[in-house]
Specification:
Elements lengths: L7 H25 L9 H16 L3 H25 L6 H18 L2 H16 L1 H10 L2 H20 L13 H25 L5 H23 L9 H24 L1 H27 L21 H23 L6 H8 L4 H10 L6 H26 L2 H25 L1
Helix pairs in contact: 1-2, 1-4, 1-5, 2-3, 2-4, 3-4, 4-5, 7-8, 8-9, 8-12, 8-14, 9-10, 9-15, 10-11, 10-14, 10-16, 11-15, 11-16, 12-14, 13-15, 14-15, 15-16
């Protein structure tokens, strides 16, 4: 990525163009709000951007630019006083004018992509007023505190953790343990955020897709239980459970790539093929779904907030436990081998196991890690098939369990072929 500032001519062109877009975006914002009186026109914002650009170029750069800012602020203050007298205390026009004044200096001192990103962000905030309001109403105070705590632990505590091995029998470091927690919970929070704030009223199929980003096991179990309220002939629940598994495969690729690109590249093709195959099966099942009353609005609460500290500490504990189990399997291959352990781990939670393989300082080849990932995913599919058989209605269980066992069998067959 080129991080060099643009030449003055290009920077000036960016300033004019982006100031024009910001002014146009503000004008459209006020029209949607039904307001006819506001600070300046589209041309006014172009002039404000040009003013900031020109004053920042003068020999006495700091003094001239700050003087211009003070003069602009005086005009904005007069405008705001008038708004207060009219009973309209909004600051959008004032803040937008000040941000437009900054575009010129940013264009002169930063790469073009950053200036464009800055301006597009202004336009996005202007156009997303209703969405931001709805989102802010959905976020509880507890979630804000949880996210702030997590950011502190990830951005402050993580860099300070020791990077030395804990003990000879546990070849991992405190830093690697918490890094695993940060990465895994961050990916899970993406799914949680989409389900909670973007698509709160979701059908089963979408719930399965999003739930698979968090935990395909949890999604399968909960959807299977919900089928008792659905028509026995409906294929939507079957498709949703297989869709969750398809997302599991793509989640694994991303998760592994964060820690070891070489291993991710080695497993990317077979795991992506399995993910696409699962997605195709899920889509085929969902297309055969005959809508029944209430089926599309079943609330599927897939998971709790993954940024809660209790979830993070549980993951850290499981990470340590999986690291110990992996070392035991490698040191005592006559009792249980890595592949056998991988399959058994699939019956609980494969993320801590896989990350422990990538993060621990045990001598394991990339080929062994890749095989362990595929076997663990196969074991997890068998577990989900059992959940479907035990908890889902008969028709749903037959379709989803057949697909999941078939995917597990394909995974194991692939390893036999390449061995």
């Amino acid at each position: 990525m080129n991080d060099a500032p643009a030449p003055p001519l290009i920077a000036f062109g960016l300033t004019v163009a982006l100031s024009f877009l910001v002014g146009l975006g503000l004008r459209e914002y006020y029209i949607e709000q039904g307001r006819t009186r506001y600070f300046g026109t589209v041309r006014t914002y172009v002039f404000i951007g040009m003013l900031g650009f020109a004053l920042f170029q003068l020999p006495q750069q700091s003094f001239a630019y700050l003087f211009g800012l003070a003069a602009l602020s005086l005009f904005l203050l007069t405008y705001y006083r008038q708004k207060l007298e009219e009973g309209s205390p909004g600051l959008i026009g004032v803040l937008t004018a000040l941000l437009t004044y900054v575009i010129g200096p940013l264009a002169l001192t930063n790469p073009p992509w950053f200036v464009i990103l800055f301006s597009v962000s202004i336009l996005f905030v202007l156009s997303a007023k209703q969405r931001i309001r709805v989102l802010s109403e959905r976020i509880s105070q507890r979630e804000v505190v949880t996210l702030a705590t997590f950011l502190t632990l990830a951005g402050v505590i993580l860099p300070l953790l020791p990077r030395e091995e804990i003990a000879p029998f546990l070849p991992i470091t405190p830093y690697s343990i918490w890094m695993a927690v940060v990465v895994s919970t961050a990916i899970s929070y993406l799914s949680y955020g989409l389900q909670t704030f973007v698509w709160p009223q979701k059908g089963l199929f979408l719930a399965g897709l999003l739930g698979g980003l968090y935990s395909s096991t949890a999604a399968t179990l909960i959807i299977a239980r919900r089928t008792r309220y659905l028509d026995a002939e409906s294929n939507e629940a079957s498709g949703a459970m297989v869709a969750a598994t398809s997302m599991m495969y793509f989640r694994l690729i991303v998760l592994i790539a964060v820690f070891d690109l070489a291993v991710a590249a080695q497993i990317a093709i077979p795991v992506a093929v399995l993910g696409l195959l699962a997605a195709g099966i899920a889509y085929g099942l969902a297309r055969r779904h005959v809508a029944v009353s209430g089926a599309a609005t079943v609330d599927v609460g897939i998971q709790r907030n993954p940024l809660e500290l209790s979830s993070a500490f549980l993951f850290a504990f499981m990470f340590i436990l999986m690291a110990l189990a992996t070392k035991f399997a490698l040191d005592h291959r006559t009792i249980i081998g890595l592949r056998e352990l991988s399959f058994l781990v699939g019956f609980y939670d494969i993320d801590p196991f896989i990350i422990s393989l990538l993060q621990s300082r045990i001598a394991i080849s990339r080929e062994e890690i890749a095989a362990a990932v595929i076997i663990a995913a196969a074991g997890n599919n068998v577990l989900k098939a059992l959940y479907a058989v035990i908890f889902a209605n008969r028709a749903t269980a037959l379709r989803s369990a057949s697909a999941l066992v078939g995917l597990a069998a394909l995974s194991l067959a692939y390893l036999v072929i390449i061995s």
